[in-house]
Design a protein that fits this description.
- With 466 residues, the chain is mostly beta strands.
- The strands form 11 sheets. Strands 1, 5, 6, 39, 42 and 44 form a 6-stranded antiparallel beta sheet that branches. A 5-stranded antiparallel beta sheet has the order 4-38-43-40-41, with no helix packed on it. Strands 7, 8, 35, 36 and 37 form a 5-stranded antiparallel beta sheet that branches.
- The longest helix is centred in the middle third of the chain and has 5 residues, at 265-269.
């Protein structure tokens, strides 16, 4: 008979990276990686990826993916453009020549792409230099019938003639300058038919009122929060998210700025190169992933559950950088372009339980005080409730593993959580006679290429007194 009080351990996945690990107790976790919050509030494994879906001939990083046409396009670091047909081929005629991450927009079936060099047009499977000497812009957007470019100059914004992104010198084309002096344009986003110009310390909003001077600053409005990282700006969930000039992540709510990363701020301020952070909207998952490539970090924000976590690759016995450099969704499937010099485009999906043969190391670390009065307790039983019976032909006896320690002492050896052969779906796995202490710290890790879901942990303790 198991004697003592049985309690449920709150395993809802919430992290707080601002607090010293010695001070973090449930429900906050010390660390959460490579998972996502289910609709029931549990922590499940993130998608993985398989062998390359497409490989282009240029063995370079894929800086941009464009979900247009039957197969989409990829742009490599040197500016060469490839279609992603079953046998990819390079588009003839022109390539990008700038040094920045490409941005793009569409006019009908034609695409214009900017990267700080001469803009190019993709039309009918051919790449060409955009006509009429447009600016050597970094950013391009579409607002109504106008194509708008910026980033070629600290303060200037240029717009094409209406309905013609190859007319920059007549027919209603023109330019304007941001109003607030002393700041540089860092990015632009068109949202709800308004142009948001992100700068060092503020955001200006411009709108199209028609007439000979079509663009005016909306309501004389400044939003007093700029960006530290030009390419952190992401349009998602019918709003805009970005890394602020003070190293917090923000969301725009009715032209009001709301901070979303309070629990991760200390982790972000440790970055040596926060200005290199780039953000990508994974729309199918309702998540934004912000990548800090120098430090190998990937901050994941679930904007529905409002939860931050981290994603990592696992290699050389440690957590490493995710290889995601660009992303697109095409025909309701997700793809990413490789950060490394491979020319590979991968499919990202829950169909893959590992990362192209490398384990997905799903990890959580937390600490609890079993006695509400802080007394010593004897832990008689720990019961995991997991999804079992998930074996496959390649993983016939899947396992997770865990370890624990009391009162910041040495860790006990790892023990294995049997995840069940096919048909063995009893969800409970028990461990007995853990020992005595006031604080119990645990790590739970899953690496096998199978589904994994931990729903509850129950602990049965006997209080021993002070």
């Amino acid at each position: 008979m198991i004697r003592g009080d049985t309690k449920n351990i709150a395993t809802n996945p919430v992290t707080n990276k601002n607090i010293d690990p010695d001070e973090v107790f449930l429900p906050a976790h010390i660390d959460l990686r490579n998972g996502y919050v289910t609709d029931a509030g549990y922590w499940a494994k993130r998608p993985g990826y398989g062998a390359a879906y497409r490989t282009v001939s240029a063995k370079e990083p894929i800086n941009c993916l464009i979900p247009h046409g039957p197969d989409g396009y990829s742009i490599v670091e040197s500016g060469r453009v490839f279609n992603l047909a079953s046998t990819p081929s390079e588009l003839t005629g022109a390539r990008l020549s700038g040094n920045y991450r490409p941005t793009w927009t569409k006019q009908g079936d034609e695409i214009v792409v900017c990267d700080g060099g001469a803009p190019i047009k993709i039309s009918a499977g051919i790449a060409s230099i955009l006509a009429d000497s447009p600016p050597r812009a970094r950013f391009v957007s579409r607002l109504g019938s106008y194509t708008i470019m910026s980033g070629h100059d600290d303060t200037e914004v240029k717009y094409s003639a209406p309905g013609n992104f190859e007319n920059w010198t007549s027919g209603g084309s023109g330019f304007f300058n941001v109003k607030k002096t002393g700041e540089i344009i860092r990015n632009q986003i068109v949202h709800r038919e308004r142009l948001f110009l992100f700068k060092d310390e503020s955001i200006e909003i411009w709108t199209n009122v028609g007439g000979a001077t079509p663009f005016v600053r909306y309501g004389g409005l400044y939003i007093e929060k700029g960006t530290k990282a030009d390419y952190s700006v992401v349009q998602a969930n019918d709003t805009i998210y970005w890394l602020g000039d003070d190293l917090d992540f923000y969301v725009l709510v009715d032209h009001q700025v709301q901070e979303i990363s309070g629990s991760y701020r200390e982790e972000i301020t440790k970055l040596h190169s926060p200005e290199l952070i780039y953000g990508i909207h994974f729309r199918n998952e309702k998540k934004i992933r912000w990548f800090a490539p120098v430090e190998g970090k990937c901050f994941v924000y679930d904007y529905v559950k409002k939860v931050f976590s981290e994603d990592n690759a696992w290699a050389h016995g440690q957590f490493e950088r995710m290889p995601i450099n660009s992303y697109m969704e095409l025909n309701n499937k997700q793809y990413f372009g490789d950060y490394d010099n491979t020319g590979n485009v991968y499919r990202w999906s829950h169909d893959f339980e590992d990362d192209n043969g490398q384990e997905i190391r799903m990890y959580r670390r937390f600490k609890l005080i079993p006695s509400a009065r802080g007394h010593n307790v004897r832990v008689n039983r720990l019961r995991f409730r997991v999804k079992r019976g998930i074996a496959t032909t390649s993983e016939t006896t899947p396992e997770a593993f865990w370890r624990y320690r009391f009162d910041k002492g040495p860790w006990f050896p790892y023990e294995y959580i049997d995840l069940g052969v096919t048909g063995d779906d009893d969800p409970f796995v028990d461990f007995h006679d853990l020992g005595v202490g006031r604080e119990l710290e645990m790590e739970v890790v899953e690496t096998d290429a199978v589904d994994f879901l931990l729903t509850n942990i129950n602990i049965t303790v006997r209080e021993l007194g002070a």
